[in-house]
Amino acid sequence: MITPRTRDLVDGVWTDCADDLGFDLEDPGTGEPRGRALGSSPDRVEEALAAAGRVALPWAEAGRRAEVLEEAARALAGRAGEIARLESFATGVPIRQTVSLGAIVHGAFALAAAQVRAGLLLSVRDGVEVHRLPWGPALCLVPWNAPAPMVAHKAASALAAGCPVIVKVSEYAPHGTQVLAEVLHEVLPPGVFQLVHGGPRTGALLAGDARIGAVSFTGGLAGGRSVAAACAAGLRPAQLELGGNNPLVVMPDAATEAAARSAAELLTTLNGQWCRALGRLIVPRGRLGELVEATGERLAALRAGDPLSEETQFGPLVHSAHVRRVREAVAAAGGRATAYGNVPDKGNFVPPTLITGADLAGEVFGPVAAVVPYDTVEEAVALANASRYGLEGYVVGADEERALALARRVRAGEVKVNGSSVMSLHLFTPRPAWGLSGLGEEGTAETVLFFTGARVVGVERAP
Known about the structure:
InterPro entries: Ald_DH/histidinol_DH, Ald_DH_C, Ald_DH_CS_GLU, Ald_DH_N, Aldehyde_DH_dom. The chain is α/β, with parallel strands linked by helices. The protein has helices spanning 42-60, 65-77, 80-91, 95-117, 147-161, 175-187, 200-207, 221-233, 256-268, 288-300, 320-333, 377-384, 400-407, 446-450, and strands spanning 7-10, 13-16, 19-26, 33-39, 122-125, 128-134, 138-142, 165-169, 193-196, 214-218, 238-241, 246-250, 278-284, 336-339, 353-356, 368-374, 389-390, 392-396, 414-417, 431-432, 434-435, 438-439, 441-442, 452-457. Helix content is 38%, strand content 24%. A hairpin with a 2-residue loop joins strand 1 and strand 2. The termini are far apart. The model has no long low-confidence stretch (mean pLDDT 97).
């Protein structure tokens, strides 16, 4: 596959990026370079900020936002396959997974339109009006592991709220989002959706600018802290979804195969490169051996290979520097690390790995998990809550009521019982973040509301 040109979209004009970011993009499947990483110039970033400020009021007052979002949803559905291929090519995530995630891209715009039509932004009770009004230009900062779905959710929500949007995706995976930008370029006025490229310098330039009204960031802890500091200086809203070290608690009565299936899926979805991946497998001490063996058998059976092949179930990591970080995390953990399955010698592959005899304190962001035994359910809860993160939790058990009782005690924004998908528990439930996993809530309605502030209007009546 030929690497597309890296282009930014600023004020309705496409331009080839020319700022050299100092490294090569890699083909994850081979490890070979596939062109230089390029970013937008500071002048283009300034143009984007100026354009967003200029169109903020007209877009806030636009009366056809729902119709435009629905038009975008239809157009994006027709280009879902193209986006999926570009995402796999850049990230190493198998095409069968990026195709499934592709439904989120066009679905996000349809859901955002539905929120507008449902009257989310205006409520009236006893003659008092509550208007939800846009904060102004919105900044969406998105990482490399699943950029197009994340951009779609954040941008569609901001547009529904009435905010013009500037998006900066990771410099490691810029091209899938360009297809999304091409569609929005056709249906939106110039400057309402803009796409720029670059690394941390570009992100800091945007997040620190007072013309940005609100920032939605998904990424690592260090980046989230930088965004929070930039927003705090101007008392601007920041929505942060950061990392996780997510526990899967296997109840004493859990079926071995059900537990192994959940563990293997949570460890290898997106090749382990997602913030809700399995970090710690918490198991009854007397069943540790059988659960490790059953999980290992499932991991060993996965077909690893070319991410663009529909036969591939497990792919490579995004780039060689990330491979080194994951391997260093395994070495630093101590204990006994066991790798499962056969992966190609060529490319950025790290085999699925279980560590026994040690725990993982932080997020690895790769297909690596610690197996931690417990003796009592109380100890299992304590182990699940021993992390400073609190993004996602999982419980597997035959008795759903007992599993739910334990799940209610796990300190995480979302806890799934007998589930392991990347989707939220329900279309209209929030996805909060606790502890070092972030700040605020994302969700179908929650993200739209994040980009707005309330204005209450009414006539005061004598009691």
